[in-house]
Write a structure and sequence with these properties.
With about 300 residues, the chain is of the alpha/beta class. The chain has 14 helices and eleven strands.
Length: about 300
């Protein structure tokens, strides 16, 4: 049996990324109900809001689901407390040191996965006892690694370096991408942008339409001196670019970024002043399906791709 399916007790090795302002209980439960693993994105939730989403997700699915936790976010101790209180079975951690919270979570019987952008951190995660890792290429949307390693090169290097299951992420948006990731040695895939543009995603309709209208060159990795983030080029990005080109300091860039910039763009639909975080695969996204229809498309595309392979 596939190692990821066995680890999470799911039907397909397809994980929906825990994306800020997109990944509420509706999306997570819909993905889990289709046989994948849905993740609630705690990064955009106050602790009690997270509790509400976990409880609603439990009512909406009897299948396994998890929570994604960016470790550098505020109130991390309260977030972890709620995860323990609600007996969340699976936690994906990112943006921080896995050594701090992995033992706490595993002592509670929780399966722990950490997101990494390079081989060095993958090895560190394995050493600290995580159950699996997500290796994310810089094609991915949102916050990103500074190394700018593509998924095509990162996946096989991480697979060769560690013995624990590897989940590939970054630039995977259809069945062909799933087949490619598995061919490179990954045990499963984590898909973000494609799930962000679904009916069940909690993102604003205006944001979803911006994703559908994006082409292959419409995203950019920016704010590298602060924290790298991939987003759609828009008036806000142009201000960032002008500031960077004029030699703006980190403090000036942070002031320009301000608070709630991603919420303004993704959740409130402000396409002018918001941060429109999405991956390079957005150029491939042309519709806003239900999760059920998307799963059918992913599985059909995967099977067609496998059948098309020919030996030399």
């Amino acid at each position: 049996m596939n190692r990821i399916c066995s680890l999470f007790n799911i039907q397909y090795p397809i994980i929906q990324a825990g994306m800020v302002w997109c990944s509420g209980w509706r999306l997570a439960s819909a993905v889990s109900n289709q046989g994948g693993l849905g993740l609630i994105g705690a990064g955009s939730m106050y602790p009690e809001v997270l509790r509400e989403h976990v409880q609603k997700c439990k009512k909406a699915t009897d299948k396994p689901f998890g929570v994604n936790v960016p470790l550098l976010y505020p109130d991390i101790d309260k977030i972890i407390e709620i995860i323990l209180d609600e007996k969340v079975p699976i936690v994906f951690t990112s943006a921080g040191n896995p050594a701090i919270w992995t033992p706490v979570l595993k002592d509670a019987g929780i399966t722990v996965v950490h997101v990494v952008p390079n081989v060095k951190l993958a090895l560190k995660c394995e050493e600290k006892g995580v159950d699996a890792i997500v290796c994310e290429g810089f094609e991915a949307g949102g916050h990103n690694g500074k190394d700018e390693i593509t998924s095509m090169t990162l996946i096989p290097q991480v697979v060769d370096a560690v013995s624990i299951p590897v989940i590939a992420a970054g630039g995977i948006g259809d069945g062909r991408g799933i087949a490619a990731a598995l061919a490179l040695g990954a045990d499963g895939v984590q898909i973000g942008s494609r799930f962000a543009a679904t009916v069940e995603s909690s993102a604003h309709d205006a944001f979803k339409q911006a994703v559908v209208q994006a082409n292959d060159t419409d995203t950019v990795l920016t704010l590298k001196s602060v924290t790298p983030v991939r987003l759609i080029k828009n008036p806000f990005y142009q201000k960032v670019r002008e500031a960077e080109d004029s030699g703006a300091t980190v403090s000036t860039l942070k002031e320009l970024l301000g608070r709630g910039r991603a919420k303004k763009g993704i959740f409130e639909g402000n396409l002018e002043e918001g941060e429109l975080e999405i991956g390079q695969i957005s150029g491939l996204i042309k519709d806003i399906p239900t999760v059920k229809d998307l799963f059918e498309s992913l599985l059909t595309g995967y099977n067609q791709t496998i059948k098309s392979f020919q030996t030399f």
